[in-house]
Amino acid sequence: MRPFEYTRASDVAEAGRLTGRFIAGGTNLLDLMKLEVETPAKLVDITRLPLRDIEATDDGGLRIGALVSNSDLAADSRIRNDYEVLSRAVLAGASGQLRNKATTGGNLLQRTRCGYFYETSQPCNKRDPGSGCGAIGGFNRIHAILGVSEHCIATHPSDMAVAMRALDAKVETQKADGSTRILALDDFYRLPGDTPDVENALEAGELITGVRLPKPVSGSHRYRKVRDRASYAFALISVAAVVRMDGGTIADARLALGGMAPMPWRDTAVEKALIGQEPSMATFEKAADILLADAKGQGENDFKIPLARRTLKAVLADATKGA
Amino acid sequence: MMTKHVMNEPIGETRLDRNTQGVIGKGVDRYEGKLKVSGKAPYAYEHLIGEDVAYGFVVVGPVGRARVTTIDVERALAEPRVLAVVTGDAIMRSSAQPMSPAGQTMDGEIFHYNQPVALVVAETFEAARSAARLVKVEYEAQDGRYEIESRRGSGRASDTGPMAADTERGDFEKAFAEAEVQFDQTYRTPSYHAAAMEPHASVAKWDGDRLTVWSSCQLLETNIQQIANGVGVEVSKVRLLSPYIGGGFGSKLGIGPDAVLAALGARETGRPVKLALTRQNVFQATSRRGETIQRVRIGLTKAGQITCIGHETETPNSEGEGFFEPSGISTNFLYPGKDRLVTHRVIASDVLMCSAVRAPGEATGMLATECALDELAEQFGIDPVAFRRMNEPEKDPQEDVPFSSRKLLDCIEEGAKRFGWADRPATPGSRREGEWLIGYGMASASRANSLMESSAEIAMSPEGRATVKTAMTDIGTGTYTILQQIAAEMLGLPLDHVDVLLGDTSLPESSGSGGSWGANSAGSSVYVAAEAMIKEFAKRLGVEADGLTLKDGHAIAHNRQIPFSEILKGETLTVTGKIEPGDTADKTNQASYGAHFAEVAVNATTGETRVRRLLMVGAAGRILNEKTATSQCYGGQIWGIGYALEEALVVDPRNGLIVNHDLAEYHVPVQADVPKLDVVLLEERDRYASPLAGKGIGELAIAGVGAAINNAIFNATGARIRCYPVTMDKLLPHLPDEVSAAA
Ligand SMILES: Cc1cc2nc3c(=O)[nH]c(=O)nc-3n(C[C@H](O)[C@H](O)[C@H](O)COP(=O)(O)OP(=O)(O)OC[C@H]3O[C@@H](n4cnc5c(N)ncnc54)[C@H](O)[C@@H]3O)c2cc1C
Ligand code: SF4
Q1: Ligand nearest to the CA of A93
Q2: Per-residue pLDDT tens digits for B581-596
Q3: Which GO MF term does the entry hold, naming one (chain B) (predicted)?
Q4: pLDDT, tens digit, for every residue of A139-196?
Q5: Looking at the structure, do residues B503 and B642 belong to the same domain, yes or no?
Q6: A83, B59, B356, B582: which one has the fewest Cβ atoms less than 10 Å from its Cβ?
Q7: Can you say whether residue B434 is alpha, beta or left, with left for phi > 0 and alpha for psi between -120 and 50 degrees?
Q8: Which residues have any ligand 1 atom within 6 Å of their CB?
Q9: Cβ–Cβ < 8 Å for A262, A126
Q10: B456, B443: one domain
């Protein structure tokens, strides 16, 4: 770990001007600093900022402060009742201790678990642009099958963000100059292309202040996480689904997937193929075909393609049953 | 006063059998439990708090195989608070092998990825860690051998392994060729890590030419030699302390590279030095269990009677290492067959050295053989329990000697009854609960028993309090507790009248903890010392020792009850006892036995496997403490879940990097993976094994349990996976197409 300067931000307006790396729960950043995967010269501690509330918004949704802990988020009664998929996704992640420390903003920005990203003596375009990609041709069982490039095949590991993507959540930020903006998650995250080191739209000094959830979406909420052990493991594939039935047909479907792409993955074509249809294995199969049309394995992660298909079909079957 | 007992004859009835004090065998709480949960049991790194210590941080060589050309330490030395950078050929490249007098040193080379090459010593841990990145290691990379699959057949037979590389009887090849039924399958187990909770850590302090080291070590007698040789001093100048150990699982049988590095750093700086390996160091710079490729061939009669058995293992190790994973160890005696062949070949490799990890041999070998037995039972259409009953040898089929005790079939029958084995789905893949496919599986367990030389002192104070002293270690298994119980039972003292001191080389030499021999060996030395003390009591009272009953601090003889204080007459009485293995080890085959039963649920959609219940029935001679023994078995069952479903150390075949070198990515079972565990220990006394009539138990529990789980997966799905761990990617192709019953 390299020596670094430490300051504490005392108000939101000031945080971005302190020109350093924000630290919230530290559960990801500190691990990476110990390994020198991340080497910030200065840390700006944002944990004293007043961003720990979940408030109702004018449009009937909720605003989650960037510093709301994962534990508090999952336990909030409004989240549990109206955004069940989010509560379930958060609880499927990490461990109790980690969730107590981890924050909403930090969770969105957590970095990949690719083993080569973590090992500084190995090539990695994300950590060290231009050095190559250790995972291609290496141990890539946990890597992505969609949205990748020849420069990087890493996944985004968050569970929380997958549910947020299904819920059309938006990220609220404040730039260093004090201006604010609101970004939908698909505009917030970036695919690797030839700059896998750029993972999102944030500019230097831009602080996530909160996440906005639109008004609740009714329907069956499901979060299914497939992993190598029953707890404390990242998703190999996860599916967040909110599906509403009307009579015998699917009236609305929102689907996002984790563990398969460099960002929480959502494909509206898949949803279109479902809406207005009667639930059946054939319909689900067609949806999976659309989802996985461009999926490509790297060898060890080939199994994720059938796994994603099977999991998606099972989640859809479950979410539409009894209709 | 020193008394020795050589185990040449079976032991008769003892005071432990009489159980007058009533404490032996009882599931009493841990002797050091309160200290541990209240933070008062110092682990290696926690010594010398408040003293003027310096801190070390290891610099590693970030390449698979190379010759080091230069190590530039100038920039690191120029950093504030940095005291020294230790370099040189003496740096150990990994842990030492358990029984070798010294660890392997680097000698200017990098033998495996992220091997230690230097140590930075600074005023603070942070300063040392920060300066470590400034040490520049220049090297010439060389070609390395990072996997064994492509080099099968190139292995050599090592004569310095944990058992003979080859054991043969009759003519296996001929018998197999002529067998009515031939079974020939190959199984693979991956590399594993011990993954003990406490990282390897050492604190070293010099006083003139005398060195004191606190380190997390299992076998102090050999460890002290390894330290002395590593540092270049006489053994007599070194004192090693290891009072509490946060798990070893074999990885602390030999010293870690930290012990010598800390001592060298302390010598160079003139300050005591503390060094804890990082989790990444532990995974990459200590030791691992080698992956195995095991070919199992079994010849049988048409009726299913085993006539010959062959078990050939290929496994790696690094240059200069004679150790091999002895996967065939239990195949030597577990099943019958006139013609037998067990071989082990070591394939040279440039990955971290391979050494003992919990139950070396059985843990991997029985993942193969117990799966093979299940395959055969299926093939013959015979229940796996009945199949084992049909194939129970009467005596050791390799050495032709009797078993000292063997309750394998009792364990299997008892287990089958308790588990409800009769409800096992008759056809694989036939039982379904919603999305889950349900299956039952079972496996035998066996673990070779050994008794080692060990000694202990008992000092009885004038007030009648006993202190047991031995350089034995307690690696979290309960050694303190059982030694207290043995002394209390033998001497007729309430438990709280016995203190136990362990983990210090200034105490009598001991076997240490390893190979599940600790309780039997160290326990027997306490037994022998206690017998000596009783004899002295009898002499002082003018009675025969046999006629003397001891209870609650009183000697009872000829209808008189005399408090110990009266016998001791104001003086402390000190005796030392020593146990040595003897003829009974050759005259009999000694092993612990058990049976594992598993119920699993395999998700028909995803292939995720969840273990629903595990039952182990074991027989390991006298159980000294029901609670600690049972806990050992729980540990084995949990490891079995890991071996069946999760654990695998992944080595990148291109460069030798151990990719998953932390506990986030090297998966061991977590609480949610572990169902209700049941353990039943049968009554047994093995009078050939030791004066305690007990046998090793810790490692018995891991033997076979992974195979029971895998066999249950077969019963659930019909898929036979011969490459561990059985993860979803391997199961998916075998699962039903139509995914959801819910649809
Ligand atoms: C062993 C382990 C297992 C885990 N398992 C899972 C899992 O199964 N599923 C899962 O989803 N997660 C898992 N996690 C990850 C965990 O969820 C994240 O580490 C955590 O959410 C990060 O939050 P934090 O507040 O600690 O972030 P920090 O570590 O403090 O910060 C992470 C990043 O976000 C930046 N940042 C933080 N807050 C802001 C802000 N307000 N504005 C701008 N930038 C900001 C920081 O600069 C840093 O780059 C696991 C972590 C560990 C260590
Ligand atoms: S997959 Fe991405 S993160 Fe992993 S090594 Fe390649 S470039 Fe780096």
Answers
A1: 1
A2: 999 999 999 999 999 9
A3: oxidoreductase activity
A4: 999 999 999 999 999 999 999 999 999 999 999 999 999 999 999 999 999 999 999 9
A5: no
A6: B582
A7: left
A8: A 21-29, 31, 46, 66, 93-94, 98, 101-103, 105-107, 109-110, 157-160, 207-208, 234; B 664
A9: no
A10: no
